[in-house]
Inverse folding.
């Protein structure tokens, strides 16, 4: 009986570490676009921003984990997921403004802003336009960042933009499957492909062009006066070198060997651990 009582007491004393119920919400931007987001948990806010044509729920393994002790928000950028799909407003600067208005709408204090892929450039534009006084830290995940795209890159991108308009389904299928180095289930691939297909073809093309047309990252980097984590896989080593050259000791580099572009899905345990360590370092 004494042993049973001790076990029961230990169970009662263990903190609740279950993922919190996810809620869905919308807000209207200053240009009247309805933006969808999901949120769960309480505590320090973390805002997750997906990449090109991807939905908020692609961060599900992070939402489940971090909502146990943080206030987690994942956003569907304009024209992605359940957000409105207007024929305008797809500049990185505009999308960055959407995220700032989301932060203001929810009254978030010192949120940690996490952007993946295209979301990295948008967060640099966030810092450039709004500064970082109300930002706890920036997490850039496998973004393609450089002084200016090479001629070879522009040649590849222009060809891909043409292919996207010719056969959106084929290109979405190929792109989604290329994001992972670790095999996912067919149901998962189909779900992500279907989400990507929700973005109109012309909008998808414009997003690519606008994302790669950014040439003034140093202006935004200069205003990132908060700690920065850059998580990347080997194919984006050049971006990591560029970010390190611009941010110096303000940035922590974390390389994910053996993982793909969606490294937080390929290796969620490592990504979540690295992010947790970064979050803990902000309070020291």
């Amino acid at each position: 009986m004494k042993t049973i009582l001790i076990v029961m007491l230990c169970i009662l004393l263990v903190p609740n570490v279950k993922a919190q119920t996810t809620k869905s919400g919308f807000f209207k931007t200053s240009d009247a676009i309805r933006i969808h987001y999901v949120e769960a948990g309480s505590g320090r806010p973390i805002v997750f921003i997906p990449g090109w044509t991807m939905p908020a729920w692609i961060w599900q393994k992070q939402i489940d984990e971090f909502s146990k002790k943080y206030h987690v928000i994942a956003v569907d950028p304009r024209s992605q997921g359940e957000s409105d799909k207007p024929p305008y407003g797809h500049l990185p600067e505009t999308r960055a403004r959407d995220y700032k208005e989301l932060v203001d709408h929810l009254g978030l204090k010192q949120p940690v802003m996490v952007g993946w892929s295209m979301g990295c450039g948008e967060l640099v534009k966030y810092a450039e336009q709004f500064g970082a006084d109300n930002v706890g830290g920036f997490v850039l995940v496998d973004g393609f960042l450089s002084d200016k795209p090479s001629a070879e890159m522009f040649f590849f991108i222009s060809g891909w933009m043409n292919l996207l308009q010719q056969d959106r389904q084929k290109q979405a299928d190929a792109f989604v499957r290329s994001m992972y180095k670790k095999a996912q289930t067919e149901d998962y691939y189909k779900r992500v492909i279907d989400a990507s297909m929700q973005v109109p073809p012309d909008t998808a093309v414009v997003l690519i062009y606008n994302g790669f047309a950014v040439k003034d990252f140093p202006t935004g980097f200069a205003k990132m006066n908060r700690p920065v984590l850059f998580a990347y896989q080997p194919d984006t080593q050049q971006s990591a070198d560029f970010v390190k050259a611009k941010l110096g000791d303000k940035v922590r580099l974390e390389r994910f060997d053996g993982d793909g572009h969606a490294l937080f899905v390929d290796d969620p345990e490592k990504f979540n651990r690295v992010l947790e360590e970064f979050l803990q370092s902000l309070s020291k």
The longest strand covers residues 34-40.
